[in-house]
Amino acid sequence: MTTTVPILFITGPVGVGKTSVAGEISEQLDKAGVAHAFVDIDSLRWCYPRPPHDRFHTELGMKNLAVVWRNFQVAGAACLVLVDVLESRDVLERYRAAIPGAEFLVVRLRAEPHTLASRVQARELGSGLEWHLQRTAELATQMDRSQVEDLLVDTEGKSITAIAREILERSKWHGIFPQSMDRFEREE
């Protein structure tokens, strides 16, 4: 019997704030006493050289995720906050293979093109700036068209904390762990 693993999958184009928002969600879940783990898939596939058939090292990322998730489960994690660029919902099958019982809620973060460009320029101070600027514009357009999300959250003019709070409230993730989230809400 496979246990259901609730996964809050945070996606969006480069520079939208996926990792920062997911980190804040993790902090809020931690305050609420919710047993969880937080993974940014980029950290599990950052390796060179990259094979020609897998320019983003997706296969390596999924192998690493399977191992890391098992270790997180042994340590007590019951759910996962996951960050990655999701270009198609078909790709979720890779994640299901890595995490048996995965039940996804895909949250796409969105920002205006000028905001994305500004964030990327502030973050990418090295040789990757041009590639990241091009990639964020490409992904923003593609994601607006494909709408891979279950929940769309506009990040314009909002703090990281407010965005995380909005995601937890709108996603009803607090309903998965009602006692824990009630305790968090009373502490605020």
Structural commentary:
- There is one protein chain.
- The chain is α/β, with parallel strands linked by helices.
- 52% of the residues lie in helices and 16% in strands.
- It has nine helices and five strands.
- Strands 2-3-1-4-5 form a five-stranded parallel sheet, with helices on both faces.
- Helix 1 (18-31) crosses helix 7 (160-171), helix 3 packs across helix 4 and helix 5 (113-123) packs antiparallel against helix 6.
- The longest helix is centred in the last third of the chain and has 18 residues, at 129-146.
- Residues 180-188 have low confidence and may be disordered.
Short descriptors:
single chain; 188 residues; alpha/beta; five-stranded parallel sheet; 52% helix; disordered C terminus
Q: List SSEs in N-to-C order.
A: EHEHHEHEHHEHHH
Please state the CA-atom Rg, rounded to the nearest Å.
Answer: 17 Å
In which range does the helix fraction lie? 40-55%
Total helices: the number is 9
Strand content range = 15-25%
- Span of the ends, CA to CA: 38 Å
Largest sheet: 5 strands, parallel
Return residue spans where pLDDT drops below 50 for at least 5 consecutive residues.
180-188
Protein structure class: alpha/beta
The count of β-strands is 5
Instruction: Based on Cα principal axes, name the global outline.
Output: globular
> What does the oligomeric state look like here?
single chain
Query: Overall mean pLDDT score?
Result: 87
Biggest sheet, spatial arrangement of strands? 2-3-1-4-5
